[in-house]
């Protein structure tokens, strides 16, 4: 172990998109920053697209532009969403249009590895950033500083620890936050397909049999599947060969895009709702999935995490000169700034998931009538688009 700790303003634990974005934001503002994370893995050999994709809102785009990451992305691999069609389970339909909402696009469909590799490149050019490809294994918090011990032997001293280490956050456990999880008993299945018919930069979503299927537009004639399926059904889907899976998706999506050709293996991840009783503790703040986990039906999980980063960075940038980054008053400002946004999105996604899980003719009639009502209200639809854009 090092005899003297290495000193930083902030230590970010966790190397997903949220953690790396946070580290880059801090480093670009001149803060001595440590990132404890692995490098981006990149695409498997021969893969056309990453199975892990995100629908990024305008707020996420703005943050990445501010950090000069968005400008470095390969534009040929970005998929704009100009329209979205949502189908209920009894003929109701909603249509959202970027043109009608007077916005450039509803979202961008972006591969996880594409953003992460651009973040890695940007991080390598930050003189105030130190990158540790190790594992945090000890954490202590004192009045004047916090310490993180690494498995490689280094000891890091810092004003602030940022937990961006995902749904099973080690930092969250160390800070003593209470996590509550409700399992949806669903698995999210992701895979990419080549389509027979053009998608027209339109995202499609179907609610059927208590499950939710989405096809999101990728560049050219490709789409990304996100199928929130009951766990036992999801196990069956993942076990199918590519041709069988494509046939199942064609049927579930009513052949909207014609014949499908599966181009990446299906992967599954469990779905649940996670909440924490606090986002901050002395010298510690949580961001991203470490702070909240929501259903992917609205595609807003990553946007919510990136808004955490933007809020924390703004609070730090506007702090009084006499406060350090771990000041409890400063961290409570961050927590207050994020509370309403997180709670509203959790309520909305969980409510929709519950609504479409209720069996029976009456429940089906009520929810589809509600969808039809929303579809006939241009002002309501514009408000929903505005909320989704962040």
TrEMBL record:
The keyword Flavoprotein applies. Signal peptide: none annotated. GO terms for biological process: ubiquinone biosynthetic process. PROSITE patterns: UBIH (PS01304). Residues 9-346 form the FAD-binding domain. Its cofactor is FAD. Pathway: Cofactor biosynthesis; ubiquinone biosynthesis. InterPro entries: FAD-bd (IPR002938), FAD/NAD-bd_sf (IPR036188), Ubi_Hdrlase_CS (IPR018168), UbiH/COQ6 (IPR010971), UbiH/COQ6_monooxygenase (IPR051205). One of its GO terms (molecular function) is monooxygenase activity. Keywords: FAD, Flavoprotein, Monooxygenase, Oxidoreductase. SUPFAM superfamilies: FAD/NAD(P)-binding domain. Gene3D superfamilies: FAD/NAD(P)-binding domain. Belongs to the UbiH/COQ6 family. This is 2-octaprenyl-3-methyl-6-methoxy-1,4-benzoquinol hydroxylase. The lineage of its organism: Bacteria, Pseudomonadati, Pseudomonadota, Betaproteobacteria, Burkholderiales.
């Amino acid at each position: 172990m090092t005899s003297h700790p290495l000193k930083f303003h902030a230590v970010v634990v966790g190397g997903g998109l949220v953690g790396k974005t946070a580290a880059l934001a801090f480093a670009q503002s001149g803060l001595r920053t440590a990132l404890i994370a692995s490098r981006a893995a990149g695409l498997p050999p021969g893969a056309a697209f990453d199975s892990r994709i995100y629908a990024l809102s305008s707020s996420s785009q703005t943050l990445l532009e501010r950090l000069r990451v968005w400008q470095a992305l390969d534009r040929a691999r970005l998929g704009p969403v100009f329209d979205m069609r949502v189908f209920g389970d009894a003929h109701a339909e909603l249509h959202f249009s970027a043109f009608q909402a007077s916005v450039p696009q509803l979202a961008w469909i972006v591969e996880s590895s594409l953003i992460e590799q651009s973040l890695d490149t940007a991080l390598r050019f930050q003189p105030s950033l130190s990158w540790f490809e190790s594992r945090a294994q000890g954490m202590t918090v004192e009045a004047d500083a916090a310490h993180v011990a690494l498995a490689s032997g280094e000891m890091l001293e810092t004003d602030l620890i940022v937990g961006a280490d995902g749904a099973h956050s080690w930092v969250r456990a160390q800070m003593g936050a209470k996590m509550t999880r409700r399992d949806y008993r669903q698995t999210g299945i992701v895979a990419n397909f080549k389509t027979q018919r053009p998608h027209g930069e339109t995202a499609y979503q179907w609610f059927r049999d208590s499950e939710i299927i989405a096809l999101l537009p990728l560049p050219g004639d490709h789409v990304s599947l996100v199928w929130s399926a009951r766990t036992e059904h999801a196990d069956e889907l993942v076990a199918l060969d590519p041709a069988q899976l494509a046939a199942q998706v064609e049927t579930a999506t009513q052949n909207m895009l014609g014949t499908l050709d599966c181009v990446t293996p299906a992967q599954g991840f469990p779905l649940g709702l996670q909440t924490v009783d606090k986002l901050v503790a002395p010298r510690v703040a949580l961001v991203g999935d470490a702070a909240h986990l929501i259903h992917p039906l609205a595609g807003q999980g990553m946007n919510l995490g990136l808004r955490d980063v933007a809020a924390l960075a703004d609070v730090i940038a506007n702090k009084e000169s006499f406060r350090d980054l771990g000041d409890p008053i400063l961290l409570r400002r961050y927590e207050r700034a994020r509370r309403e946004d997180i709670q509203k999105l959790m309520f909305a996604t969980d409510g929709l998931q519950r609504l479409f899980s209720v069996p029976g003719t009456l429940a089906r009639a009520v929810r589809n009538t509600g969808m039809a009502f929303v579809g006939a209200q241009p002002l309501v639809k514009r408000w929903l688009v505005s909320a989704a854009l962040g």
